[in-house]
């Protein structure tokens, strides 16, 4: 790995190019630019953890209209929460978010805490989410380290591909060292770098020709060595997986207009392989997403 060119004129140049790009190109997402509360920002971060922001936006808007703060979400029924989560995927996140809402409502009087140690202790909140909330909601000076930011910084500043997996010490040091000293600027830096990684400096096909950093990018200068090398994880197929079956089961439950349980006779019509169907019913029950009743009927937990 190349030496970290900290405080070099090149890094100063990267910053001066990124900010104007952000001003002209940032997507006007409903949780950006001071349009929501710290709680709204936390909800957007949880929803975006494994789902693209553009897909999250309509769900987020509906969700926040119904449950504008932690106290409102804390009072919702599990069925309402799982139903509103819709097709965002990985629905356990919805239950964790509601657990988080209950803690915020009860322990913090409905206001998100502003200390890292308190945020990271909340259900479903890890290092990334705690850092993102501190930076985006409270303008704290803290490096936010997600895959997009790691990729941009590693390519532009070090000239090497980010290899995925857990963030390395070098990547964390780099993110911290490049962070502007001013807290408001650090907020923009985090958001702009993340946005560049999502929209331009993508994993497989970086659009260097339209990138504001191109002329000063060490990765381009080096001939893009090992482009997309970190993407060694085989693409996960969805069709036929337990994820698909679990999604079908939850979708069928959400679609029921009455509050009656879904009987097993209806469930077997969803999926022909009964062993896999049963396995998915068990795992959904274990995750607290459904309640398994006698005769293998199911309903949302009360
Ligand atoms: S020039 Fe290309 S590799 Fe460098 S930061 Fe921009 S998109 Fe990424």
Structure report:
- This protein has 302 residues and is mostly helical.
- The protein folds into three domains: 38-138, Endonuclease III, domain 1; 142-221, Helix-hairpin-Helix base-excision DNA repair enzymes (C-terminal) (Endonuclease Iii, domain 2, Orthogonal Bundle), CATH 1.10.1670; 242-299, Arc Repressor Mutant, subunit A.
- The protein is 54% helix and 1% strand.
- The protein contains 15 helices and two strands.
- It has a two-stranded antiparallel sheet with strand order 1-2.
- A hairpin with a 5-residue loop joins strand 1 (291-292) and strand 2.
- Helix 1 (9-25) crosses helix 11 (183-199).
- The longest helix is centred in the N-terminal third of the chain and has 17 residues, at 9-25.
- Bound molecules: iron/sulfur cluster.
- Iron/sulfur cluster binds at residues 152, 155-156, 200-201, 206-208, 211, 213-214, 217, 219-220.
- Pfam families: EndIII_4Fe-2S, HHH, HhH-GPD.
- It is an enzyme of class 3 (hydrolase).
Q: Concise description?
A:
This protein has 302 residues and is mainly α. It is built from 15 helices and two strands.
Order of strands across the widest beta sheet?
Answer: 1-2
Q: Judging by the overall fold, what is the CATH architecture of the largest domain?
A: Orthogonal Bundle
Would you identify the CATH H-level superfamily of the largest domain? Hypothetical protein, domain 2
| Tally of contiguous helical segments | 15
Q: Say what the CATH topology of the largest domain is.
A: Endonuclease III, domain 1
* Distance separating the two termini: 53 Å
Radius of gyration: 22 Å
Proportion of strand residues = under 5%
Structural class by helix and strand composition: mainly alpha
Number of strands: 2
Low-confidence stretches: 1-6
């Amino acid at each position: 790995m190349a030496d970290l060119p900290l405080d070099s004129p090149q890094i100063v140049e990267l910053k001066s190019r990124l900010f104007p790009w952000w001003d002209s190109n940032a997507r006007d997402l409903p949780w950006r630019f001071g349009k929501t509360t710290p709680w709204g920002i936390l909800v957007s971060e949880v929803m975006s953890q494994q789902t693209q922001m553009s897909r999250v936006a309509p769900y987020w808007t509906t969700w926040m209209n119904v449950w504008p703060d932690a106290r409102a979400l804390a009072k919702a029924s599990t069925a309402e929460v799982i139903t509103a989560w819709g097709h965002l995927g990985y629905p356990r996140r919805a239950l964790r978010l509601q657990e988080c809402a209950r803690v915020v409502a009860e322990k913090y009087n409905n206001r998100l805490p502003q200390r890292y140690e308190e945020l990271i202790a909340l259900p479903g909140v890890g290092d990334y989410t705690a850092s993102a909330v501190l930076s985006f909601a409270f303008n704290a000076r803290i490096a936010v380290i997600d895959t997009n930011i790691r990729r941009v910084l590693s390519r532009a500043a070090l000239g090497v591909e980010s290899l995925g997996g857990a963030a390395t010490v070098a990547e964390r040091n780099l993110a911290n060292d490049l962070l502007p000293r001013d807290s408001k600027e650090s907020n923009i830096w985090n958001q702009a770098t993340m946005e560049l990684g999502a929209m331009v400096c993508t994993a497989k096909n970086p659009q260097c020709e339209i990138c504001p950093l191109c002329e000063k990018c060490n990765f381009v200068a080096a001939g893009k060595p090992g482009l997309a090398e970190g993407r060694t994880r085989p693409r996960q197929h969805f069709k036929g997986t337990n994820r698909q079956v679990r999604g079908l089961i939850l979708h069928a439950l959400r679609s029921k207009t009455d509050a009656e349980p879904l009987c097993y006779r209806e469930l077997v019509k969803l999926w022909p392989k009964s062993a896999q169907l049963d396995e998915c019913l068990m795992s959904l029950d274990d995750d607290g997403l459904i309640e398994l009743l006698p005769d293998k009927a199911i309903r949302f937990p009360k």
